[in-house]
């Protein structure tokens, strides 16, 4: 019996990187929205674990108008834009199931999670460096905040990456 690789077969599942990128877009679009960030800021207790976590989810906040933010709408939204782009790029660059010693769900989960941690840190760093008034201290602090955000919310991306084709 010959073993064949049917590359022309259509799978009913998306790629792990594609579903992870879609989850990252949805997470940033929903939790970074002005409605959610306003709700989290007004209706959660920052001194409780749940309140702190719900506020953390709003880290990649984006805005519809620039208000008094210097640099306009693009500068205010740079962190959210970079987070989605970098997450998608890193999900495609980190092919866990192809290089992992133990292929399968664990490698897909941790690859998606790790990609989001790296994307969060890089998005924070680059948003400060490319935005108005760049400073190295601000960039390093934002990278730490972004990596924390990615570590504590990246499990969502890891779960979304499960079960997809490599």
From TrEMBL:
Keyword field: Membrane, Transmembrane, Transmembrane helix
Superkingdom, natural source: Bacteria
TM helices/strands, residue ranges: 78-97, 109-131, 146-164
Stated name of the protein: Cell division protein FtsK
The species this protein was found in: Micromonospora musae
